[in-house]
Amino acid sequence: MSQTQHLHTTRKQRRVIAATAIGTTIEWYDFFIYANTAALVFGGLFFAPLESGAGLLLAFATVGISFIFRPLGAIIAGHAGDRLGRRVVLVASLLLMGISTMLVGLLPTYDQIGVAAPIMLVGLRVLQGISAGGEWGGAALMAVEHAPQNRRGFFGSFPQVGVPAGMLLSTGVLALLSGTLTEQQFLSWGWRIPFLLSVVLLVIGVVIRRTVDESPEFQEMRARKTGPALPLLTLFRAHWQPLLVCTLIVTGCSIAGYLSTGGYVLSYATSALGMNRTTVLSAVLIASALWVVTTILGGAASDRFGRQRVLRWGSALTFLWSVPLFLAVGSANVILIACALVVLTVPLGLMYGPQAATLAEAFPTEVRFSGASVAYAAASILGGGFAPMIATWLHTATGSLLSVAGYLAVASLVGLVGATLLRTRTDQGVSTTEASQAMSKDSAPA
Predict the structure, then answer these.
(1) Range of the domain at 190
(2) What is the tens place of the pLDDT at every residue in 128-162?
(3) Which helix (H) or strand (E) holds 439?
(4) Which of the residues 164, 251, 290, 335 has an alpha carbon 20 to 30 A from that of 342?
(5) Distances from the Cα of 415 to the Cα of 34, 256, 382, angstroms
């Protein structure tokens, strides 16, 4: 390869990294702005007739409802991505998420139109779930399939960065509004601004994603004119074992993310402890910023030490930190809460960073989009989707945050089991296998 060709390839790979990172950041901004706003105001705005606790529980339930529809989005996007290509699905999923998010910002409240308000809110949340079900798989595969063989973990960490970066962006916008508006202004119209801003982000994301070339792995498969007519059927028939293992891995870290920076800590600190909203948002903001860094480091570490080893360490450290984390939250001391969340970003990064490469390497090209998307979506139902609601119920039933800590500890053990069962193909070209039963053990011993 000439120096010119090498430079061209490098530029193209950088463009892919930027497109996947920026696109998933926008997607997850849309997703998290809903979760955080639900934690702060949706209980009173859309479920006004209910008591505050029940209203909050239902608001969190609407967060979880979208996760039920993620598998539908994963099935649709997986089929389209394996048959038509990765890029077209990425653009379509971003459009669906952006439009549905913008419409949430235009919704009338319960006081204005009654029961129709929460019904429409749930409907738009369903559309968000369908979009999210197809988004991650496409972004992850575009990054990993464009990557050099020995840097798949690093490249794959950039779409993963979309999770903490989206949280960082959404939390930052909410913190800014919360700090500059009065309580009445925020409840009246201020909460709508983050949703309406999605239009600007949507345009940016679509323009960037349309400039990215199709995945070389998919182009190679299309040139060979291979691939099943029904990828999903082939996935469940021939590749159910890696599908199950990948689901366990993603489930553990999803619960950890949604219990910490993903809504529950924010809700508990502001609602149950009466802490200042802007102050708690600032603590989450700091942790989200560091989570971006640890995610990239976690992906790079998996290239050096192996996916299995890094995922194991992430799960084990989360288990050890689960009780200290919630003891800090229960203290109502914002410095302790911020420090506890910052420490948690280390194991979170170790779990999130290698995910894209891990799931891509678990499936052959012809069913890879379906496999990665379905595993991620199924884990979202078992893990993150209902985590804040389950945590709220546990605390209400027991009166102790230690029950929530126990929930996080169990989740980390689920991830640890998945990582222990993992067999990846880091020593092979991503597109060379015909069936994932041939997967060898991880190239680095655990």
Answers:
(1) 3-438
(2) 888 877 777 778 888 888 888 888 999 999 988 88
(3) none
(4) 251
(5) 26, 10, 12
Asked whether residue 443 is domain-assigned, the answer is no
In the chain, the amino acid numbered 385 is G
In a domain, 45, yes or no: yes
User: What CATH number is associated with residue 37?
Assistant: 1.20.1250.20
Per residue in 383-408, pLDDT (tens digit) is 766 787 788 889 989 999 999 999 99
Residue ranges of alpha helices (H) inside 146-230 are 152-180, 183-188, 193-196, 198-209, 216-224
CA-based nearest residue to 128, from 390, 377, 388, 352:
377
Q: What is the number of domains present in the chain? A: 1
Burial class (CB in 10 A: 0-12, 13-18, 19+), 225: exposed
- Would you say residue 444 lies in a domain? no
Classified as helix, coil or strand, 205 is helix
User: Cβ(50)–Cβ(346) under 8 Å?
Assistant: no
Residue 181 DSSP one-character state: S
